[in-house]
Amino acid sequence: MDIHSIESNVKFPDMLFYDMKKPGEMALYLAHCDLYPFRSVIENNKIALDVIAEGYYQMATEAREQDDFVTESWAMTSGSLHTSRVWMYTQYSLLLTMVSILEEAVNTLCRVHMNMYLIHI
After folding, report:
1. CB 5 within 8 A of CB 12
2. Cα torsion at 21, 25, 26, 27 (round to 10°)?
3. Phi, psi (degrees; rounded to nearest 5) at 5
4. Which of 50, 51, 84, 94 is the most buried (most CB within 10 A)?
5. Which residues contact 19 (CB under 8 A, 6 or more apart)?
């Protein structure tokens, strides 16, 4: 059975597919709980960035049709900066967030392993 969030295609992992008695599987399940929804964050950022870029393009086009050089110049400059810098910074931020999620997954694996095996010795 797939479980989805409301009005979204975010899938949450089903515990039935993981052996929660094994630390590796438990950590993998917890990592999937973080990583699966992160896909929506990436997709939503792309949608937002595309809408902003399209907005600058439309502003520049409308300003050009009205012979408004100042607004056209501003929209083109803003759109260029958005495309060349903001997009890149957003991708860097998403990458850093994903690395942080993976780092936490490894830390969780270590904690689960320690709690299940080392403490019971």
Report:
1. yes
2. 150
3. -75, 160
4. 94
5. 25
